Amino acid sequence: MVMRIGRAILCSVIGIQWMTREFCKSAIGEPAVWGMIYGMIQTILSNYIAYMAQMSIEILCAGVCAAGLITVLAVVIGWPLALVVSECPVGVRYVVSILCVPFLLMPPLVPAIRVYGLLANGMIMGRGCSAIIALVSAGLVEAAIVSMPITFLVSIYAVRQVDPETVLAARTLGIRRSVIRRKVILPQASSRIMVGTILTFVRACGAFMAAAMILQTEGLLEGTVEGVVAGLVQEGIYLNVLLWTALVTLAGVLLILVCGMRHRRQHRKPQT
Amino acid sequence: MSLEVRIRKQYHDGMLDVNLTSDGGIFALLGEKDGAMSRALRCIAGIETPDEGRIVLDNVVLYDSLAHVNLPSDKRRVGYLFPGGALFPTASVEENIRMALMGGGRELLESSTDCKTSPAILSTRVNEFLQEYHLDGLGGSYPDELTPLQRCQAAFARMMAGNPRLVLLDEPFAAFDSYRKAEVLRQMQQALQEHHLQAVLASTDMDEVYAMGDHVSSLHRGRVEPMQAVHEFFDHPRTLQAALLSGCRNIGTAHLVDPFHALVPAWGALFSFRDEQGSLVHLPESLGAIGIRERDFLQEPPLDEQGHRIPCYRFSVYRPRVIARRNEVDLWFEPGRREGGGTLVYTIPKSVWENTGTAVIERLYVRMDHILRLVP
Q1: ipTM of this model?
Q2: How distant is the Cα of A161 from the closest Cα of chain B, in angstroms?
Q3: Is the pLDDT reported for residue A211 higher than 90?
Q4: What's the CA gap between B120 and B136, in Å, rounded?
Q5: B158 vs A184: CB contact, 8 Å cut-off?
């Protein structure tokens, strides 16, 4: 029974991750509060999932810490890079942005699970110790190739959404560029960057929960997430898959609708 | 105070060709809503870089393509008032002004250039700006809490806090109704005069230009036409585009019959002009149109102070149609007997119209010196 629930929840995590990506694409321009609400929901879900899967507290803590590390790394590299690149010529911006896209398209868990699988199988080290090391190393891989590009893209998108006339006005007022970045660009982009950061963190959390669950289900250690889903379908647990996916999809769609309505209300033309 | 701009820049939809000089006061650019005026102002402000040319402000070269000089916008001390104000949305009005004072307005802070050491002076100056620009009690408000009028006032105050040598006004009154427009326009005009600042106003509204400008140029298809004093521009525009932009509604395409005569086929009229000695005036070869202002029509032949008749043209009034407006009446008529020719419009104050009526108007007169000879 526990195995079944665990597998079903795994599917929901994959669903949430997909929704996160979609949400990230559609709702970057939304206020931070909605991103935070969505992030909180997903965090609660991730923790609930971990609890249901009877994951050990050590692994859970290590996962969350590693997710935090990923986020910090991604933010430390992603934000400044975005600020610098946003002032580069259009060609450079496009090239750097396009370079990030393949990473976004890559199934996010694949590299993490590969490394994790090798270590957790005890092929390199003993099983107990290797689980922690696996999480951290997988986290670094995750940070380097997936989370950082996401944070970078979110940040550069947020900077590009800043009203350009305010930046130009600041320049004609003789304000120094560093001051413009700090007092004009960042305050305007901060809510969107915050949304991206929260989503990066939540996404990283979700990735570790899924990886940790794979560890606890011996038969699923090898292979990719897509393989896991295929396995579930082959075993005929359609109801669980359907239920969780539908719930998550519904929640995501509702949130996006609410965000859209709020966005429209906020951008209604002010009365003269 | 002087401004000299001679620049060219190729855009995907046309060429910007600006050639203007101004020796102070408010210079107005009157044009269409095609973005060319904003482009011209952006080049002067250093936001965009021209392909070639030269911009000199008070003997300081801001841009010179031959000498490879291109001062960045933050070093030019050219204030730019954006159409929506472009206030920093995450900063209050007070903070907006404070940032401008700490930027280009450092010279306005009396004691030192380091604002961190003189917060009291900074606050005092900010309050002075708030008072001077009618923003009392709004220092703590954020841009989205302000009305468009207050936003414009705040943006203007911020721009002035940046201590500019030249002010560029990019359609600042476009969002206002006529009453509020008059109010802001008066305030800005007063502030510019008090600070002895030179300004360039870009506008599509001839009333704004008439009320605010000292000199005017029309901008047509990216090209600035020769500058004229504001009254001269509205009374005697030289070009077809200037006549159109200054509100002339009777314009007929003209063909030169000989060097002294121009025919307007649509009106069935042949025009010739005489100077004060009575000799025929040589018409420009490039003459493209004849224009008559709708208020220049007279119901009686004009006479001078001695009672002598002033040279004028006479137009017959056929098929009149009356369109009443709030304070005026437009009398549309055809000057030719044959139906389907061109139409002309005569604008009469309502009080005059109520005394006369259409029945008595069979002929209208226009003084010869009021007829506009327009080149393309």
Answers
A1: 0.80
A2: 13
A3: no
A4: 18
A5: no
